[in-house]
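Please decode residue identities from the backbone states below.
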């Protein structure tokens, strides 16, 4: 049976969209753009297949749908911008199959101007069709929060910016089948910039609280008590918490390569957040020293090496740099993570602890990097010889906190 929807790119942006579409009863086909680690569990993916979702390697099927959404991943480029290689490859593949009256939507994080610039040109030159006349073209910033059970695609508003008003309405009609609310932007550039603002908002606020963590430690102030009190303010404050670094699939954008300028706040945020793995290692070495031990030769156990709790995704996880820096100091590093059966650092496998409590009791220092639900933090704080909690997840007084 022909599908109504083709999701091009089955990574962290595409799989959640396909899952939401299948749940809404939309016949959906998925087309891979490359090796793409997704954020859905094997059980969730099996459920999608049972509901009729199909994965295809045949580009011809992209020409048999009413709506095609490009969700190819983007990554930081060497020039500080974003690498749009997979987005462009997806556009070329789709263009060769594109039929009149199809609605094409870009969900990948891209610099403002991409949809009505490079994407439009690739689609038009490859298809011989004209955007806004022969087919609809729009941008919809991806709003995915893996593992969040409160905010799902069904209750998260979708922002739509079309090339023309008709393009906007066509895309809005599609997303109206998936979500409760559709918000119409003035155009593609505005919709693309929504993603830019939302991503940088997160990074800037995490950077602020990360700097507060270092300041409070130096001044002997309990940051976590400060946050507990501050979050009672009912206006003008949103709670962000410090951590060992920022991971994930959306990164703060430097627009120099695309717009000839930078967002200074985003640039500073990236600098601050990028220093956190080094700061965690400094705190770890200081803790060991305070307890009469050297980092050289110390047994250090890392708990939770994914970028987010309760996920198997390692994209951008600060655990990688923390492990490297500890190894450079001469520490013997092992890890425990129920979602990661094997983990390589510097092209070498890191020993995986089978028993959490035994490993924590044996380690000179245990560092909690990610608070997976399966972790009994009260029990862990009792068993561990020395515990550094970078997430503020352990009971007050049970561990040394960031």
């Amino acid at each position: 049976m022909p599908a109504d929807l083709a999701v091009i790119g089955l990574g962290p942006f595409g799989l959640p969209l396909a899952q939401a579409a299948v749940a809404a009863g939309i016949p959906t086909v998925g087309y891979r753009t490359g090796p793409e680690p997704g954020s859905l569990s094997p059980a969730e993916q099996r459920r999608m297949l049972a509901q009729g979702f199909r994965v295809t390697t045949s580009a011809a099927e992209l020409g048999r749908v009413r709506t095609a959404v490009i969700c190819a991943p983007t990554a930081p480029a060497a020039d500080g911008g974003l690498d749009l290689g997979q987005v462009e490859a997806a556009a070329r593949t789709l263009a060769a199959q594109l039929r009149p009256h199809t609605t094409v939507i870009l969900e990948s994080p891209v610099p403002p101007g991409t949809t009505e610039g490079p994407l439009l040109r690739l689609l038009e030159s490859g298809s011989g069709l004209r955007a806004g006349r022969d087919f609809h073209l729009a941008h919809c910033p991806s709003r995915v929060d893996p593992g969040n059970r409160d905010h799902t695609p069904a209750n998260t508003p979708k922002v739509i910016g079309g090339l023309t008003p008709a393009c906007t309405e066509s895309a809005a009609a599609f997303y109206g089948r998936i979500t409760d609310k559709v918000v119409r932007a003035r155009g593609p550039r505005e919709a693309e910039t929504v993603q830019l603002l939302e991503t940088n908002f997160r990074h800037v606020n995490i950077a602020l609280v990360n700097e507060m963590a270092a300041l409070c430690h130096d001044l002997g102030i309990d940051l976590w008590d400060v946050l507990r009190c501050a979050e009672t303010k009912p206006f003008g404050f949103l709670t962000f918490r410090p951590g060992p670094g920022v991971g994930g699939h959306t990164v703060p954008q430097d627009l120099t390569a695309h717009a000839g300028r930078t967002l200074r706040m985003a640039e500073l945020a990236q600098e601050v957040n990028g220093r956190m793995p080094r700061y965690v290692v400094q705190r770890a070495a200081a803790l060991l020293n305070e307890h009469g031990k050297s980092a050289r030769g110390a047994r250090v156990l890392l708990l939770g090496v994914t970028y987010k709790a309760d996920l198997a995704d390692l994209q951008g996880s600060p655990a990688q740099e923390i492990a490297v820096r500890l190894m450079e100091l001469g520490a013997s590093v092992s890890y425990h993570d129920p979602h990661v059966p094997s983990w390589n650092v510097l092209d070498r496998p890191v020993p995986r602890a089978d028993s959490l409590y035994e490993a924590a009791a044996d380690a000179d220092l245990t560092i909690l990097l990610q608070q997976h639900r399966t972790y009994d933090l009260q029990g862990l704080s009792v068993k561990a010889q020395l515990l550094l909690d970078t997430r503020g997840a352990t009971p007050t007084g049970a561990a040394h906190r960031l």
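Observation: The mean pLDDT is 92.
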